[in-house]
Amino acid sequence: MTSDTKNKRLIAFTGGQILTMDPQNNNAETVVIRGNRIIDIGDAEICNQYPDVDIVNLDGRTLLPGFIDSHNHLSSFACFFPNWVNLFGLMTKEEILGALKKHAQMNPGNGWIVEFGWFDGKSGGIDLNRFDLDEIGIVRPVLLIQATFHMSVTNSLGLEMAGIDSPTPNPQCGIIIRDSDGNPTGVLIENAQSSVFNLTMNTEIREHAELIRARAIELLSFGITAIHDPGVTLKAAEAYRFLYNRENLPVSVLMMPHGATILDNDPGMWLEGPKTGSGDEHLRIGPVKIFADGATPETVAYDMVIRGQTMKSGSFRDDFRGILYDATRKGFRVCVHSFGNATTDAVLDAFEEAKKYAPPEFEIRPRLEHVTLISDSQIRRLAVMGGCVSIQPQFLMRATNFSRAPVENAKWLPYADLFKSGVCVAASSDDPGGFMDARDPLKGAVMGSTMSNGDGNTVFPDQVLPFQRWLWFYTAGSAYAGGQEHERGMLKKGLVADLVILKGALDPENPPVVDETYKDGRLVFKHQNEVNV
After folding, report:
1. 75-200 — its CATH code?
2. pTM of the model
């Protein structure tokens, strides 16, 4: 990158509240940046040391580090989503098929039609199969991806193009749902989706890069200046590097190495290349992302005691341990998708075992994604291991359902317990997955700080934390979870000048808005104004 050396403008931000997120300096009145670095921080008098400084008067607004979305599928589902049919809010067969027909009419051709945001019957929506998709008479392959990414349904032509028929065996860690005669119904679970994902998200590097850039620019309006991408294939990495080499990455990216397709645990040649931490503040390699479980009843392992009765369901993947050990041996940190409490037991055991394979002086720093159900003993164990979690407050939208299952040996979404026990908590969106457009960290902080299900109802009041703590989760917490604590996440000398200015009180009942976003010391978003990126 050469643009950083060109941008040497000296700017001081003062006249408002400053949230440094730095526990060693939480009383700052002024932050001074030069180019893309913070060079000073202190009281208002430090401006006198810089006679040529440009003053940005905060005028009572709040300055804090740029937000870090620690779980954003930018290079996969998120960048393609704007070109797909958006099914969020469509819950009936008629609505879904109607949206499909309308899209086909407005976008003639013979390529794949992809719809995203489908909820199956167990998720409160409608179960569909290939015959439902066939009946509308579209002679094109069609794929409906469930809102969690972990299940999809395709039509008969889609099955044919993916090479899936009656003799096709279930892949490892995947399920092809079949009827009583053994014929595929079109429903594909977990790794059984690999072939259709390959077909529907296969594009040239330049086009892929343009899709990534367009989606990334939107993040600036939310104050997001960096993301962790939990599933970067080798091909997606080429698109990121294409943008990086041309200085066209709108946000900083921590690439989390993954397999050839999403949900494929084998990172392949990733493990023969640069290790976790390699790169710079614009594009860096993070922990390897692997899945220990999924997000369907069959693929999430729970071990619950409810009203004195033990209930076990689902199973975790059998392929994650060896990959975790191999990645650790080769100097990579690892983060693991772990929804169920039984899964988390297996994951913590694997991280303990991985110590045997770690290079000398290597810090494993275990990281778990999601952890929707976890016990007190598991939390303590993770804290002792120096672990992190990346959580998504949008999952509170389903918390009412969770609260109806009074689990006695674990807790649903125990965000406060995790933090208070010493686990580093990072916050994120899971964009575009889940139950809403969850990209806005302020909206996430409102939900998290009130433990609200989106309707204003507090679901787990014992897990409420202050609004400012949630801002910490989206900044310093996310930076630490990505191994970036010496680069970003705090307002501190030497760290990157990625900044957000909020207008309004830090009150979840009447939350602030993003007024300005600075990336590498440059103003890239101003509320109600267009800024060239």
Report:
1. 3.10.310.70
2. 0.96
